Amino acid sequence: MSSSQFVCALSGIKVTEEEMEDVEFPDGWVEVKITRRYVNPKWDAIQYVKAGLVQQYLMGIPEDQRDDQIMAISIQVEAAYAALEQQTDKYIEETVTKYIANPDQNAALMAEYNKIRKTLGMPLEKLQPEEEGEEEGEKEK
């Protein structure tokens, strides 16, 4: 993956070259992937047409013989549409992937990240404490 792909959806922060050095996915970043699946409208239309044809063919058969003929008619209609069904996906899936920058040392980002986690029924996370070397360096300034 290229580093230009990683832009935080919450803050607009871009991954740095250092974060991407020797890794495929930046340390601490979060990948959020949402996939929505629904029945392909074309697939539904094919099923509707097939059912209509079976009913149409049955109308040409005397009522007392329909139960005996429904299986044969259904097989013929299935065979007629088998190639089209083979080429048509039953479901359509839409997947969206977003990234969240490492929220471990950014209180505002962690708060927003935790709102998402709470909404999804996930346990909340806490800010990671800063490393001792960083704290001492900041105290000296």
Descriptive account of the structure:
The protein has a two-stranded antiparallel ribbon with strand order 1-2. The protein is elongated, with a radius of gyration of 29 Å. Helices cover 48% and strands 14% of the residues. α2 (41-59) runs antiparallel to α3 (66-87). With 141 residues, the chain is α+β, with helices and mostly antiparallel strands. It is built from five helices and two strands; from the N terminus they run αβααβαα. The protein has two domains: 3-38 and 92-127, no CATH class; 41-88, no CATH class.
Could you give the topology of this structure?
Blueprint: H1 17-20, E1 30-39, H2 41-59, H3 66-87, E2 91-100, H4 107-119, H5 132-140
Antiparallel strand pairs: 1-2
Helix pairs in contact: 2-3
Helical region count? 5
Fraction of residues in helices?
40-55%
Could you give the count of β-strands? 2
Large-scale geometry? elongated
What is the CA-atom radius of gyration, in angstroms?
Answer: 29 Å
Mean pLDDT: 89
Structural class: alpha+beta
Major beta sheet, strand line-up = 1-2
Task: List the keywords.
single chain; two-stranded antiparallel ribbon; disordered C terminus; 141 residues; 2 domains; alpha+beta
The gist of it:
The chain is an alpha+beta fold.
